[in-house]
Amino acid sequence: MDSFYLAVMVATALVLLAAFSSLLAFRFGAPLLLLFLGIGLLAGVDGLGIDFSNNGLAYVLGSTALAVILFDSGYGTTLQSFRTAALPSLTLASLGVVLTACLVGLLAMLVLDFTFIEGALLGSIVASTDAAAVFFLLRIGGINIRDKVRSTLEVESGTNDPMAIFLTMALVQLVAAGEGYAGFDFELLILFFEQMGLGFVCGLIGGVIIHFVLKRLNIERGLAPILMLAMALMVFGVTGVLGGSGFLAVYVAGIYAGNRKIPARTTITRFQEGITWLAQIIMFLVLGLLATPSEFLTILLPSVLLGLFLVFIARPLAVWLCLLPFDYTQREMGFIGWVGLRGAVSILLGIVPIIGGLENGQLYFNTVFIIVMMSLVLQGWSIKTVATRLKLIIPPRIGAIDKVELDLPGNANHELLAYRVAAGSPVALGERIPRWAHPSLVIRDGKSMRYQYAGRLQENDHVYLFIAPGYSGLIDRLFASKAPVSESDEAFFGTFQIAPNRPVEEVLQAYGPMSASEAEAEMTVADLIEHRIGGKAHYGDRVRLHNIVLIVVDTDENGRISKVGVSMEPVAPATSLPIFLDLPEIRSRIRTYFAKRKRLRAIRQTSGKPDQKEA
Amino acid sequence: MALADLIAQNAVLPALKANSKKQLLQEMSAKAASLTGLPEREIFDVILQRERLGSTGVGNGIAIPHGKMGNLDRIVGVFARLDQPVNFEALDDEPVDLVVLLLAPEGAGADHLKALSRIARVMRDSDLVEKMRATDDAASLYAFLSDSQASNAA
């Protein structure tokens, strides 16, 4: 029994240490997940000496944690961002994963003396971007990146895990069976569609059931999140038993459940947030504990080479090829290419060759571990800098606000908001709060009073109001301090502004020739943007019109677009190096090249002899 | 590409006098007409048409009116500096005193946009803009436009 208490003590101590390390991470901007991994390594066999080498247990723990994380990623993905990014993201998650795996595989043949199949196995282990790492950096990292780019990265990282997991499992079996290329048969393809198809269908059904149960059964508020989590894991388990991809299923179920109206939403969201943190800490700690860094030295050089290749060549190349058919600018492709963070999923998959009984199983694990560490350091640390450099960050429209939202019991059509009045905010300057917001209570210097008797609001007053859900954005503005305007705003909002109520035809005349259907040419600029987005436009939304980008700079109180910016970003690339070119640019470069040759030839013919002078 | 590639030496109006946005655009259209041989009225109409879509005053006292012309064979720019700023309905409601007018051939497409974006970027350089405001000498203004490349290498 003593050993049991000891184990509990050590385990909780590690989790606590990881939780405390977050303070450090926020102060220094270090990738938090790297710290978790580091703590695991430090406590492990080569550090404090905790000898944990139970691969099976680590795999089970890691997979369960991953299921929890994937469910939460789905839960937090709005349907709108899924729609924006579904096609490009799924291309990245399927074709992109295969491309990355093959490219890494080719290099592995060279530096590790692998066969191609073995190389591809290594490649598929590191091919998926880590949902946990990407979500963490994009959401909690405190930067607000362009919608399209963020959605693409998020949906990609959620959907490419199942793909990489499938590939890894399949290739481990192939290598173990020693069949070589003969193993790439029709059956494998069928298995793929079976797994993904089942995963998708089961996930959808699971999502419907989760929603139904939570909505219909009047469950104790505190129990609701537990119920949801248990059902999510149930979906994971059942799908796996049926032979589908459980990881895809939880993600899909999460998307479905997260986009439906569910009672006790705030309680659930908070719980999800906490449990996802815990899942991440456990996953990285356990994987860190499992590793034996003293073995790393022998394969350090090839692993570092592979890591550099993955970060600088394989991932960017795969991203570029996958996104070519879609409307991404050079900067956007560059950023997506850079944010290919690898994380716990890859390390987790690194265990599979060991469990699968491959003779050099440990080699895979160690190599993958080093590659992941490199990716976390290189990409994790630089993500904010790169986003700023590429001008992909949405400048804040309003300054900081300090507010608390509370769910009201019963089926109330109002939520309770509590704001602190910020200095310099419109309300502090005398702006009245609209009556529909039901301003009710003001707390000033610890004394509460009714809004009617409070007079002009003062700095640091707390104001309580009841509003219909969905209108808080308008009230936010009243309580926010002034937004700081920075240099990059101009780059973000475009060079010129145009009136949203003018016909698109005038835009075509001014900036054409460009492609737009006749129906689109007759719309107003605002209608076109809303039509392309497929719903209400939001601040910062972008619609590309051939060589220009229309940007929603502001919306009015009815949610209609009130200001539109025109950006020439597609023709003003961040670098003139021929990387991440989009299709129109490639066409234009080819045309210029041939025109130049033609001119040169014409000069040669007229002068009768070769002329070296540039035309 | 320095701005001097777009704006010829004789296309610089160092101390233009105008009382209104309309008069300013007329004066600059006249200059553009003399450079290109196109009718002044046509140029003015094209520029005005674009202004109807939204003012090209980009803020900080700078405006970049522009438009496309059917029978033009190259991109042509005119630079004007005003002693007295005029109201241009600009983004920030500040009156305008540095104006670059740009005309592009109908089929210029990407080149037209590149030129516009280039001008906007150069005119965002506050040091350069200060220097331009401080002189009414055509040759110095043209010199600033010529080495706008160097000061904006980043």
Features:
heterodimer; A: 615 residues; alpha+beta; Na+/H+ antiporter like fold; Alpha-Beta Plaits; Uridine Diphospho-n-acetylenolpyruvylglucosamine Reductase, domain 3; 4 domains; 5-stranded antiparallel sheet; 4-stranded antiparallel sheet; 9 strands; disordered C terminus; B: 154 residues; alpha/beta; Mannitol-specific EII, Chain A; 6-stranded mixed sheet; 6 strands
Question: How would you sum up this structure in a few lines?
Answer:
The complex is a heterodimer of chains A (615) and B (154). Chain A contains 22 helices and nine strands.
Overview of the molecule:
The complex is a heterodimer of chains A (615) and B (154). By secondary structure, chain A is α+β, with helices and mostly antiparallel strands. Chain A has 4 domains: 55-389, Na+/H+ antiporter like fold; 402-485, Regulator of K+ conductance, C-terminal domain (Alpha-Beta Plaits), CATH 3.30.70; 496-568, Uridine Diphospho-n-acetylenolpyruvylglucosamine Reductase, domain 3; 583-615. Chain A has 22 helices and 9 strands. Chain A has helices at 2-28, 32-43, 55-75, 79-111, 116-125, 131-140, 147-177, 186-216, 224-242, 246-258, 265-290, 300-323, 330-338, 344-355, 361-389, 451-454, 472-479, 488-493, 504-511, 518-522, 525-533, 583-607; strands at residues 402-406, 415-420, 439-444, 447-450, 462-467, 496-498, 542-545, 548-555, 561-567. In chain A, the strands form 2 sheets. Chain A has a 5-stranded antiparallel sheet with strand order 1-2-5-3-4. Chain A has a 4-stranded antiparallel sheet with strand order 6-9-8-7. With 154 residues, chain B is α/β, with parallel strands linked by helices. Chain B has a single domain, classed as Mannitol-specific EII, Chain A, CATH 3.40.930. In chain B, strands 1, 2, 3, 4, 5 and 6 form a 6-stranded mixed sheet that branches. In chain B, a hairpin with a 2-residue loop joins strand 2 and strand 3 (62-63). In chain B, helix 1 (21-36) packs across helix 2. The longest helix of chain B is centred in the first third of the chain and has 16 residues, at 21-36. The two termini of chain B are 13 Å apart. The relative contact order of chain B is 0.21. Mean pLDDT of chain B is 86; it is low at 150-154. Chain A: The chain crosses the membrane at residues 6-25, 32-50, 56-75, 87-108, 120-142, 163-184, 196-214, 226-254, 274-292, 299-323, 335-356, 363-381. Chain A: One of its GO terms (cellular component) is plasma membrane. Chain A: It is found in: Cell membrane.
